[in-house]
């Protein structure tokens, strides 16, 4: 590969994909693809495996017996799995927080020696946990028209789902909303068809790739044996209870984590506390020639929520290439309070 081919790469990427020891033979591109964690990835789990694929081109391929793997300058080749198609290395101990650098050194079947590097940042480990699962259908059965209220307490800024297993015959999935830091609530209107003598309430919490489950101590009873004279809430009243006062933690309402977007722009619509300021930071990671990924900031601005706590922002990537991964970080501020950062990843179709 000639120096001219490098002329259009950013300088940092030329250094990161340095090729040394070129012989007089024509140098054909042997690509290192699909690095994981990706180039410039942030908040990487300390126990994440490190890997990359080898792609042959024009009959030239990697000689797996020549591959050497270094992490932060330490030779970890003997602890890696190396094949003709890929390598993978799983750290024996969790990696410390901060910037980590991977170096691959290998010789291809033309006898050309190459060195490729990329880096990523390990975040502080998230200890995903559930501390409490409680509901209001344990001390007495709930009647039709009442509200099943489930409360889950655990790691803030997580994705929480509640499953109601009804007499071992069917399962209802109930999405939870984070109403304050680490407190998640489900409000479900009970209907006549929801008769349950013994319901098992199970909470699922996911954060940073870690998943936790917890079951409520008491079974839930619905309809069966319920008595009259109980105050019942309407759906409209429940909606008002959930939305006022609105939580400060920003939530995207028109897209979910891992969704795909299309076109030359996409819109983020969300909710937060009324009149709060929302800082929106969007970065894009795009593969360059299959060697490594380049990351750039697409937008970094603050938008103002309206009196109902709604906000909208349109993101216009400069080059909306297929496969580009966007990381969206949102933080809301109201007065002297600042919310935890909410993150979701979107992929360009």
Spell out the blueprint of helices and strands.
Layout: H1 3-6, H2 11-16, E1 31-36, E2 50-55, E3 68-71, E4 74-75, E5 80-82, E6 86-89, E7 98-107, E8 113-122, E9 130-135, E10 147-154, E11 159-166, E12 170-175, E13 177-180, E14 183-189, E15 196-207, E16 210-215, E17 220-222, H3 235-243, E18 251-252, E19 260-261, E20 266-271, E21 277-288, E22 292-304, E23 310-315, E24 325-334, E25 337-338, E26 342-348
Parallel strand pairs: 19-26
Antiparallel strand pairs: 1-2, 2-6, 3-4, 3-7, 5-6, 7-8, 9-10, 10-14, 11-12, 11-15, 13-14, 15-16, 15-17, 18-20, 20-23, 21-22, 21-24, 24-25, 24-26
List keywords for this structure.
349 residues; mainly beta; six-stranded mixed β-sheet; five-stranded antiparallel β-sheet; 26 strands; 47% strand
Give a description of the structure.
- It is a single chain.
- This protein is mainly β.
- Helices cover 5% and strands 47% of the residues.
- It is built from three helices and 26 strands.
- It has helices spanning 3-6, 11-16, 235-243; strands at residues 31-36, 50-55, 68-71, 74-75, 80-82, 86-89, 98-107, 113-122, 130-135, 147-154, 159-166, 170-175, 177-180, 183-189, 196-207, 210-215, 220-222, 251-252, 260-261, 266-271, 277-288, 292-304, 310-315, 325-334, 337-338, 342-348.
- Strands 19, 21, 22, 24, 25 and 26 form a six-stranded mixed beta sheet that branches.
- The protein starts with a helix and ends with a strand.
């Amino acid at each position: 590969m000639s120096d001219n081919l490098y002329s259009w790469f950013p300088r940092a990427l030329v250094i990161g994909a340095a090729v040394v020891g070129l012989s007089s033979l024509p140098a054909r591109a042997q690509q290192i693809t699909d690095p994981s964690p990706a180039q410039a990835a942030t908040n990487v789990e300390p126990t994440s495996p490190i890997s990359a694929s080898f792609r042959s081109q024009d009959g030239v391929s990697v000689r797996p017996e020549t591959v050497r793997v270094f992490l932060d300058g330490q030779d970890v080749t003997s602890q890696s799995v190396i094949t003709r198609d890929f390598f993978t290395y799983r750290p024996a101990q969790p990696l410390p927080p901060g910037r980590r650098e991977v170096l691959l050194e290998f010789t291809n079947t033309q006898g050309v020696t190459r060195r490729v590097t990329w880096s990523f940042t390990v975040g502080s480990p998230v200890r995903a946990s559930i501390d409490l699962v409680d509901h209001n259908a344990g001390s007495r059965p709930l009647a039709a028209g009442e509200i099943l209220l489930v409360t889950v307490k655990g790691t803030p800024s997580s994705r929480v789902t509640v499953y109601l297993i009804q007499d071992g015959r069917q399962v209802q999935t109930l999405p939870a909303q984070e109403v304050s830091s680490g407190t998640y609530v489900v409000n479900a209107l009970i209907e006549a068809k929801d008769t349950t003598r013994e319901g098992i309430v199970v909470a699922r919490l996911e954060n940073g790739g870690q998943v936790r489950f917890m079951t409520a101590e008491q079974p839930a009873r619905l309809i069966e044996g319920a008595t009259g004279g109980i105050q019942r809430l309407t759906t409209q009243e429940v909606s008002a209870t959930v939305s006022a006062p609105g939580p400060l933690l920003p939530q995207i309402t028109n897209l979910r984590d891992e969704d795909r977007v299309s076109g030359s722009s996409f819109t983020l619509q969300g909710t937060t506390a009324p009149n709060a300021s929302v800082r929106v930071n969007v970065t894009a990671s795009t593969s360059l020639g299959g060697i490594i990924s380049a990351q750039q900031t697409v937008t970094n601005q603050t938008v103002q929520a309206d009196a109902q706590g709604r906000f909208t922002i349109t993101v216009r990537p400069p080059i909306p290439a297929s496969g580009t991964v966007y990381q969206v970080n949102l933080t809301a501020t109201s007065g002297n309070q600042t919310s935890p950062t909410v993150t979701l990843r979107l992929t360009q179709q």
